[in-house]
Specification:
With 300 residues, the protein is α+β, with helices and mostly antiparallel strands. Helix content is 24%, strand content 25%. It has a domain of 40 residues. The protein has a seven-stranded antiparallel sheet. The protein has a three-stranded antiparallel sheet with strand order 8-7-9. Strand 11 and strand 12 form a beta hairpin.
């Protein structure tokens, strides 16, 4: 009887050890997966064709977080819709023109008057202008002052250039900052200076029109422009403003069907999740068939 009891205890101890080891390794896998998701790479599914043909509906993309630096913030507060402080760990390179970026859309549905962080709402667009650039659109084509290279998806710009100035069915011609006197359109736009952190702008009516939402988001105060041309941030008179954050101008590759910076303005850097790296899976939306020619494709 003692021998049977000893054998039973040994068996229990053996299986307990195996379960303990399995639980330990499972926890390590969860920790490793969480670490990779937060700091290194994450995945998203493309739902629309605003980035076609670079990205198609049904593409699953890998987003590189570590090159630009992963973000850290209180997820619980973000899910509750509260203001959160977003910090970024050091990355090994800055975001560049023509990078394809995933970001949190900076406006809530129906609220175009103020920037807000929505942790559940993601967009993907191509970076056209980086902090410190001055962007123009001339005859549908993006131009960066002092930069000779092409930016954005060129075939889409050529298609916009062919549109009549009066517009075409299904294409929204009028753009940010939605001022009739300026007359900015998808064909003729700017110049728009894209702020960099530390950059100072004189506060006049033009700066108020271009940067009001950005300044109010940074300061959490209302910025108003009086009829006499004086600007007030809260109750304080200001003649200039120094930006705290970097900003980007982003646009869809399918330029005639993309809600991007041409319409809603500039993207704050803290809202950027990361840079699209590769397509790891691709399925036809209607049939579910795998598009093998896109699997593993590098996104450029």
């Amino acid at each position: 009887m003692d021998r049977m009891e000893t054998k039973w205890k040994a068996t229990v101890k053996k299986w307990f050890g195996r379960l303990t080891n399995a639980a330990f390794y499972l926890c390590m896998l969860v920790v490793a997966y969480t670490f990779l998701q937060v700091f290194v790479v994450t995945s998203f599914r493309i739902p629309s064709d605003s980035m076609a043909p670079t990205l198609l509906p049904g593409d699953y993309i890998l987003v590189d977080k570590c090159s630009g630096g992963a973000r850290l913030f209180d997820l619980s507060d973000a899910l509750d819709g509260k203001e959160v402080e977003i910090r970024r760990v050091p990355g090994w390179r800055r975001y560049r023109r023509n990078d394809v970026l995933v970001f949190n859309f900076p406006y809530r549905p129906g609220r175009w008057d103020s920037i807000a962080f929505d942790v559940m709402r993601y967009y993907v667009k191509r970076c056209v202008a980086v902090p410190g650039d001055t962007l123009e659109i001339r005859n549908g084509r993006y131009r960066i002052a002092g930069h000779a290279g092409d930016v954005g998806y060129l075939p889409a710009q050529e298609a916009i250039a062919l549109l009549p100035d009066s517009g075409a069915t299904g294409v929204q011609m009028t753009t940010f900052p939605w001022n009739k006197d300026w007359g900015w359109t998808v064909k003729e736009f700017g110049p728009l200076p894209v702020p960099a952190g530390g950059q100072v702008v004189e506060m006049d009516s033009a700066s108020w029109l271009l940067y009001r939402q950005l300044i109010e988001w940074e300061q959490k105060k209302r910025l108003r422009m009086e009829a006499d041309g004086r600007a007030y941030l809260g109750d304080s008179l200001i003649r200039e403003y120094r930006f705290r954050e970097n900003y980007y101008f982003v646009a869809g590759d399918k330029a005639d069907n993309s809600q991007d910076s041409r319409y809603w303005g500039l993207l704050p850097e803290p809202f950027v999740v990361g840079r699209v790296w590769r397509i790891w899976k691709s399925e036809e939306r209607s049939t579910g068939a795998v598009r093998w020619n896109r699997v593993g494709k590098r996104v450029e």
